[in-house]
Amino acid sequence: MLTLTGQSLTLEQMKEVLYDNQKVRASENSFEAARKSREAVERIVSESKVVYGITTGFGKFSDVLINKDHVQELQLNLIRSHACGVGEPFPEVVAKAMVLLRANALLKGYSGIRPLVIERLLDLVNKDITPVIPQQGSLGASGDLAPLSHLALVLIGEGEVFYKGNRVSSLEAFQKEGIFPVTLQAKEGLALINGTQAMTAMGVVSYLEAEQLAYQSELISSMTIEGLNGIIDAFAEEVHIARGYKQQIDTAARIRGYLSDSLLTTMQGELRVQDAYSLRCIPQVHGATWQALDYVKEKLEIEMNAATDNPLIFDDGEKVISGGNFHGQPIAFAMDFMKIAVAEMANISERRIERLINPQLNDLPPFLSPEQGLQSGAMIMQYVAASLVSENKTLAHPASVDSIPSSANQEDHVSMGTIGSRHAHQIIQNTRRVLAIEMICAMQAVEYRGVGKMASTTKRFYDIGRLVVPSIIKDRIFSKDIENAAECLKTMDLIKLLPQLNDVKSTNQL
């Protein structure tokens, strides 16, 4: 069981909870910190002090004093009025991440919320009761107000959840699990919704998918190198040490390892002097993507353990400070960076697809067709890859450079980080399909070259691929092959296929 403290949650731990059904609990020290900050809120209410969000309205209504007899009603009205998200729900795994991250942030002890409410959040995680949260409607400051309000609705028994494969009312799920909804007290509604957990949750899930995809892209491109009799000299260690980027050096090393016993690669001058950039520059381009992903990982792990609501309570209530930690700019930048980095993985992959199917660029059958002219082969698969790459270019436009004033100009600069995170997730889905197309074409190319000559690592990958995508012996509905290959990549456990990646990941985390 994972113990949350509000201080040390990692992406690997998030992965265990989201994908391996790891259960969670709060440390007693973090609960004690939450209790102390709650006592401070109760003193403020009893003494009728003027403190934003506790005894006042919100946003432009921050100067409106609320009578202490109405503090519960204030919190309930806040949740109901702010729950106006629209569009399709976030994927269930993202919504679950949102709940976990909100609980972790509240355990830091700066938010003035009762441990009971945090316990209810942990119940949602442990019992797989996942809030239905619309994706659209957040400006990314003051935090993810609309999405988190839909999360909070579930806690008070007014929202909807995904539960055991169905979409039901939260009350129905609670009754089946013996859980009671909570009645929000002073500040608790604000503490639940004033944060960056929607953009961060989507960012966490997107990063975990992007990391896996980046490793897979190296395997797929290695198989492409074999299919095109690529020149291995360009991956020599001294070339990459001479430039000095660790991620570039590591990418080249992994590809050398994958192809170490291949009989399909060539040396410079053997067939040609040099390869095109989409092959020769794989370590430089993919390595740069890893640099961006490393940056994203660092920012996510900070934000996952950050207090991002407002106001924050310090020194046992002696200081209650209204600040701006809810502003999502750091994550907005990180999401935009990830968008560009992953889009480039697709961009260079599409160029390798072109080299695999274009008879003017290789000595393989045109379009890898089993019967030229009568059978079109992979011709239109490249069209699809080109379309997805072009769509990615539109989605990669930075969301973080936009801002629209809100709340009567009180909130006059916002991050749009949640839009950035949603677009990053879509780019990753598109990129996975582009790489799936490259995988299909590369498998067909190595068949023409001779599967028995493949490296042992790429041959294992090829064998897995052939379980879901048969050899192209005649034209068929390739849409199904693309989706099957993409789903294979999404669910593939690369560590089981390549145990050496464990050592790579450990090195990357140093």
TrEMBL record:
<dbReference type="GO" id="GO:0019557">
    <property type="term" value="P:L-histidine catabolic process to glutamate and formate"/>
</dbReference>
<dbReference type="InterPro" id="IPR001106">
    <property type="entry name" value="Aromatic_Lyase"/>
</dbReference>
<dbReference type="Pfam" id="PF00221">
    <property type="entry name" value="Lyase_aromatic"/>
</dbReference>
<dbReference type="GO" id="GO:0004397">
    <property type="term" value="F:histidine ammonia-lyase activity"/>
</dbReference>
<keyword id="KW-0369">Histidine metabolism</keyword>
<keyword id="KW-0456">Lyase</keyword>
<dbReference type="GO" id="GO:0019556">
    <property type="term" value="P:L-histidine catabolic process to glutamate and formamide"/>
</dbReference>
<comment type="similarity">
    <text>Belongs to the PAL/histidase family.</text>
</comment>
<protein>
    <recommendedName>
        <fullName>Histidine ammonia-lyase</fullName>
        <ecNumber>4.3.1.3</ecNumber>
    </recommendedName>
</protein>
<keyword id="KW-0963">Cytoplasm</keyword>
<dbReference type="InterPro" id="IPR022313">
    <property type="entry name" value="Phe/His_NH3-lyase_AS"/>
</dbReference>
<comment type="pathway">
    <text>Amino-acid degradation; L-histidine degradation into L-glutamate; N-formimidoyl-L-glutamate from L-histidine: step 1/3.</text>
</comment>
<feature type="modified residue" description="2,3-didehydroalanine (Ser)">
    <location>
        <position position="142"/>
    </location>
</feature>
<dbReference type="InterPro" id="IPR005921">
    <property type="entry name" value="HutH"/>
</dbReference>
<dbReference type="InterPro" id="IPR024083">
    <property type="entry name" value="Fumarase/histidase_N"/>
</dbReference>
<feature type="cross-link" description="5-imidazolinone (Ala-Gly)">
    <location>
        <begin position="141"/>
        <end position="143"/>
    </location>
</feature>
<dbReference type="InterPro" id="IPR008948">
    <property type="entry name" value="L-Aspartase-like"/>
</dbReference>
<dbReference type="GO" id="GO:0005737">
    <property type="term" value="C:cytoplasm"/>
</dbReference>
